[in-house]
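Q: How would the structure tokens look for this protein?
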Amino acid sequence: MTLAESATPLPEVSPPVIRTSQPTLQHTQTSQPAWTVTPTPTSTPAPSLTPTEPACWLQGGRYDFTSLKTELLRYPLDVRVYVPPCYDQQLDHRYPVLYLIHGQSFTDDQWDRLGVDEHLNALIARRELPPFLVVMPREREWTQSDQDPFNKAFMELLLPWVEGTYRTLPDRNYRAVGGLSRGAGWAVHLGLQYWDVFGAIGAHSLPVFWSDVPSIKAWLNAIPPESMPRIYLDIGDQDRPEILKSATWFEELLTKQGISHEWHMFTGYHDEAYWSAHVEQYLRWYAQGFE
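A: Here is the predicted structure in token form.
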């Protein structure tokens, strides 16, 4: 897989001490670090309606597609939006929003192909997750964050369009931003700079933008401790060495700063097989802040 991270300079830091673990274990970094075993999924009975639930609850969500024209970008901003079940029937209901950004050389269909809608349809139907919107924009520039206008288009065009088009909950606790690979770099970039907009940041297989490295500590220090976003980091133990180094650099910085976060190193590579295996886990984590 050809990704721009391979040609992008990464932070000049000493080699990190990478925590090793068995594939079934995950390390959760909180104020009191602890090891926990990931539970093995069990079979779940097929969902059924209760007398108070409409039939649309089991019909699944849909995708909306749009292309936003703007002078901020060289190309229109393509966007796909997962709209949860019963959105069109329950007109008095407002929804949390999860923004998911794809990796380099991919498009806004990547998270779709990884199974976001299938997992959400099943989890919502089983009443294991609340319904929420998922916004998947397309990013095309592949430059460093200080040269790429995607940041500006995201905040000045995309987010206002979403808030004005859909019935959202206008509160940071009901907005989350996440991404994989380069998209993870954008999630950290956006989530830390705009902490008053996003209540959670998910960075999956994170290469930190080189241009962000000098600013990240200052961004973290500027966030009031009581307003620090929830942060989730994960990576495969066989990921590319420079990306492992970048992700662990950021995780170690959070640890040194005493910032609560989750850090998971699973078995896997920097590829879609790894990410698709963890999509349900990601969605469950994001939804914890929406309940």
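Strands lie at 25-28, 34-37, 62-68, 77-83, 97-101, 133-137, 175-180, 200-204, 230-236, 262-266.

The first helix runs from residue 110 to 113.

Upvote if useful.
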